[in-house]
Amino acid sequence: MNLLIGKENNLNNKLVEQIHSLTPIQRVDLEEIVDDQLTSEGYIFVNLLDVSISSAEVLRIVRKKFPNDCIVAMHCFQVDHMINKLMEEGYHAYVSILDFTDSIHDVFGEV
User: Fold this and answer.
1) CB-based contact 19:25 (threshold 8 Å)
2) What's the CA gap between 2 and 44, in Å, rounded?
3) What pLDDT digit, counting tens, does each position of 48-81 carry?
4) For helices 80-89 and 55-65, what crossing angle results, to 10°?
5) Which of 81, 87, 91, 111 could serve as 73's disulfide partner, Cβ 3.0–4.6 Å?
6) Does residue 111 register a pLDDT over 50?
7) Interhelix angle for 10-20 vs 100-110, to 10°?
8) Residues 6+ apart with CB under 8 A from 35
9) Residue 58 class from Cβ within 10 Å (0-12 exposed, 13-18 middle, 19+ buried)?
10) How many C-beta atoms lie closer than 10 Å to residue 65's C-beta?
């Protein structure tokens, strides 16, 4: 099962619904990544609006648990230098929550 890391809220429910139309996915909290015996099928989507630690620290936690998965940062950034910072940290792809429907299809084609 692919994962979306984020809180239980309307936004994440909608994101899961959109992604699920392309591939199976389950929403989890970041704490569940550390504590549970979760498995993944290759994609980890991280809603960075929902985490209280730095994006680099989130990436470290997720990569430690799922070293071979494609880790996709999700945020509302639309400025190139903010997006580039996430890519330089080591995220494999970026999806803008504001332009989600159009950009989610690109993730599966890029990686």
Assistant:
1) yes
2) 6
3) 999 999 999 999 999 999 999 999 999 988 788 9
4) 40
5) 91
6) no
7) 50
8) none
9) buried
10) 16
- What's the token pair of residue 36? 């549970």
Residue with tokens 């332009």: 99
Local structure of residue 22 (DSSP, 8 states):
T
Phi, psi of 38, deg, nearest 5 = -75, 150
Q: Token pair for residue 53?
A: 């630690």
Q: Which two tokens stand for residue 63?
A: 């990569």
Beta pairing, strands 25-28 & 93-96: unpaired
User: Cα–Cα distance between 65 and 63 in angstroms, integer?
Assistant: 5
CA–CA separation, 70 and 111 (whole Å): 7
What order of strands is seen across the sheet that includes strand 2-5? 25-28, 2-5, 43-47, 70-75, 93-96
Tokens of 81: 């230098």
